[in-house]
What we know:
Elements: H1 2-21, E1 38-47, H2 62-67, E2 70-75, H3 103-108, E3 113-115, H4 124-136, E4 140-142, E5 144-145, H5 148-151, E6 155-159, E7 162-170, H6 176-179, E8 187-188, H7 201-214, E9 220-226, H8 256-268, E10 272-276, E11 284-287, E12 290-293, E13 298-301, E14 312-320, E15 323-334, E16 340-342, H9 348-359, E17 369-370, E18 373-378, H10 382-385
Parallel strand pairs: 1-2, 1-13, 2-3, 3-4, 7-9, 9-10, 10-12
Antiparallel strand pairs: 1-14, 5-8, 6-7, 11-12, 14-15, 15-16, 15-18, 17-18
Helix pairs in contact: 7-8
Amino acid sequence: MNLLRRSSIVVAALTLIGSLAAAESAWKWSGTLGARDVTLLVVGDIDIQRRADPTTAFAHIGETLKSADLVYANLEGMLVTPKGLEVDIPDKRGWRHPGPEGVLALRAWNIKTVGVANNVAFDRPNILETLRVLDANGIAHTGGGRNIAEAHKPAIVERKGVRVGFLQYTARWYRDDEQLATDTEPGVAKISSRDGVTIDPADVDRVRADVRVLRPLVDIIVVSHHNRDGATATQFPGAARPERSATPRDQHVSEPYQKQFAHLALDAGADFVYGHGTHTIQGVELYKGKPILYAMGHSAFDQPGYENAKDGLIARAIIRGRQIARVSFVPVSRNDHNDVFMLEPSSTEGARLVDIVKRESAADLALPVDGHEVVLLDRNSARATTQARR
């Protein structure tokens, strides 16, 4: 950790300089905001590596992140020193671990809570080391642990007297014996769907139990999962895998099990559900008045081979009076340096991404543009409320 500590000093100075230069650059969100309201930002997959200064990945949105009370993201990679392609994750060609320095960007830009349950959480020692790095840097986490009980343990964060709980699972992995938590071995929490339609009943029961145990401990529950995306060749030998068909599956289209997962989590008592891991964006939904974003796409993502997978969303939730009062989102992309930036919904590229979300959402969901964001839920608006799908 000596290198990490030395890097921290340098990055802290660089971040201070960058913050002073960009003090007025936070996104201009719409909607009224009271002094006691809590703002939660949910961002897409994060994988920061191959940078002299890790904080540059958020140079264009850092002030937006810092202006929020709470930021949550899927951490797409292990914070361990990489050994090389084809070595770090033998079953995933071309992938390498980001390295421990990536935590500096999380810490510098207010990303204080992450989920670690995803397919690139490999292997058991690396999962434990990643959690140690997060703990050492004061970043709360969920989805992984020293055993299955810890992997299912929520991250609970309090802001302005409001307690928010987070749970995360993965529906995609490579090796049970190196990734999935057991009663006695470290790993991540999972939900299993062999066919993309149904979920293992035992996992359904576990998700329901997790939410119900968490419900009386917090005011707001956010549940996320790493999308199955057709599963992997090693995960379910012999199972049907849509990506092997002559016509590749359109990954903008949610699989049926994703809807089942989102609905069962909300029915159990969750307030907000979202998905990640497809490297694309997908549709959104209001289910019994509660928001779902089926795939958030990327945020800062430096992994080789994904330079052209730039689409993503940032979602903002306003928590008022211990309930989610408003949810909106803004499309994001990345530039030639892989730095993430936000897009006006009315811009050419922003409108293209918004159109994808609308195309994959229910036709009766209005999704109006309000200022610089697209509104999914606004409890102060009768029009938005009546769009809730029952």
